[in-house]
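Intended use. Records like the one below are meant for learning the mapping from a protein sequence to its folded structure. Do not use them to infer anything beyond what is encoded.
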Amino acid sequence: PVHIALLLLLLLGPAPQRRGGWFVATWLAASIVMLLALLAVGHGLLLTMDKGSSHRTGLDLLAAGALLALGLRELLEDRAEGAEPPGWSRQLDRFVAMPLPPLLALSVLLQLCSPDDLFLYAKAGGTLLEAGLGRGPELLAGGLFCLSTTLFLILPLAALLVLGQERVLPALASTRDWLLARGDLLVGLVSLALAAMLGWQGIEGLRLS
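Structure written out for the chain above:
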């Protein structure tokens, strides 16, 4: 939600196509570099989290527990009507006001430091390595994965480019408001979904080992 909200604010501000385009391109480039780095390290990487070996199964279960705790905290936290929005949302206006280079650097830092992102990239890298694909199919599958991580950023930018800022301005503003109001709920649901996936694979690893 942080990156989507940042993009929406950029698209609602000055020079939306240039700033939003660079923002989306930077996310995609960081995704590609991160996945290529994991693939370059190879099958010995512990963070691949493939099921079936003790240390990788342990990482699956550890990640599932951490994401379960995060998801429950976000969903169960009491937010009375009129309460302040999530802490991360209160920093967005300050981030958007930054010049573009430091804003992009901050975006990449947040992307690289996000536990959800790290686990997903590690899982994707491990799956590709385990599949034993040739270099070409491996790069193609990795590229499709990286493109999929950018989907929710590409859609509003594409709508702006195709329809124009004035036509999509109300939709962008309402989406921004909804995201700021429901960001914690979204984080909680995504975290619980990831926890369920990793927990199931951890249990499968225990059964197979």
